[in-house]
Amino acid sequence: MSSQESSRVRSGMLRFWGVRGSVPTPGPSTIRYGGNTSCVEVRLGDEVIILDAGTGIRLLGDALVRESAGTNLEVSLLISHSHWDHIQGLPFFAPAYQVGNGVRIYGCEGARQGLHWILSRQMEQPHFPIPMREMVSEITITELKEAEFSLGQIHVASLALNHPGGSTGYRLSYDGQSVVYLPDNEPASYGLLGSPDAPAATESGDLNREIIEFIRGADVAVMDAQYDALEYRDHVGWGHGCVDDVVRIAVAGKVQRLFLFHHDPDHDDDRVDQMVLRARELVQALGSDLVVDAAKEGLTVPVALRLAEC
Ligand SMILES: [Zn+2]
Ligand SMILES: [Zn+2]
User: Fold this and answer.
1) Which CATH superfamily is domain 3-309 in?
2) Cα 173 to middle of ligand 1, angstroms
3) Which ranges in the chain belong to alpha helices (H)?
4) Domain boundaries, the chain
């Protein structure tokens, strides 16, 4: 792409506000990657899209309030599923308490009672002193019935993931740029299958094939890679990914850039560094040019590396 063409296309932006899985992990050993649970901000076109409402959403909300400087905010929040680490920050999301703001929440039901019930219930006594009705912004909660839909200018595709109680992955696309977000997912393990190069040969490889198609060619993929290969053997069926499998899937899907996400609460910063090194070794062994990093709280990246480099 010429620099003239690239100047007409504005690259989107992605920022990590919470990257930890399961439970917040504040403390000196997690200070580099961060201890807040799942929350990712994506800016594409004019849309502000928030992926999950873990504890990281509190600081995002404060930043949005500062940025808006008194003008009305419109944000969309996509919930992957209703486990604590993906919804627990919502009661602390400041924009929801300001008249005139619009907060559109989307997610699959994920439980029998419905998404509205799940989100409002965590704000009732004895869990929390302020009920959801005191969030005086215009809040809409929509249970997704379609696999694909639009958020303003953004095309959104969703995919059911393999996680206890269910989880939903999202692909956001706009103007030739795309971000995929696959938290809380356990792919079929190539390592355990003993067929690293032939996942399609087994029935349990079906989910992997679906994921590979879902992420194909994405600029950025944010994927649950909670365990290394050794740990994974003791956590089969827990609903989280093994870094080796996630890298193989990202390479097969030819994504540009992979962020390891949903870091295990028992992994300190050095351990996350080791996961990244292992991932990069595997990328090299597979002869791929996939760029791999670990998601890090506060890190901002352009969605389209190719545009950013023009
Ligand atoms: Zn989680
Ligand atoms: Zn979960």
Assistant:
1) Ribonuclease Z/Hydroxyacylglutathione hydrolase-like (3.60.15.10)
2) 24
3) 3-8, 57-68, 84-87, 115-121, 190-193, 206-215, 229-232, 243-252, 269-285, 305-309
4) 3-309
Whether the CB-CB separation of 80 and 170 falls below 8 Å is answered with yes
Q: What is the DSSP pairing of strand 39-44 with strand 13-18?
A: antiparallel
Task: Give per-residue pLDDT as tens, 256-274.
Answer: 999 999 999 999 999 999 9
pTM: 0.92
Please report which confidence band the pLDDT of residue 114 belongs to, taking 50, 70 and 90 as the band edges.
confident
Ligand 2 centre distance from Cα of residue 167 (Å) = 7
Confidence of residue 89 (pLDDT cuts 50, 70, 90): very high
Distance CA 285, CA 174 (A): 32
Distance 36 CA to ligand 1 centre (A): 11
pLDDT digits 0-9 by tens, 137-191:
999 999 998 899 999 999 999 999 999 999 999 999 999 999 999 999 999 887 7
Q: How far is the CA of 165 from the centre of ligand 2 (A)?
A: 8
Share of the chain above pLDDT 70, in %: 90
Give me the residues near ligand 1 (ion), CB cutoff below 5 Å: 21, 85, 184
Instruction: Please give the distance, rounded to the nearest whole angstrom, from the Cα atom of residue 214 to the centre of ligand 1.
Output: 20
Contacts of 87 (CB under 8 A, 6+ apart): 52, 53, 54, 79, 118, 119, 122
CA distance 106 to 148: 12
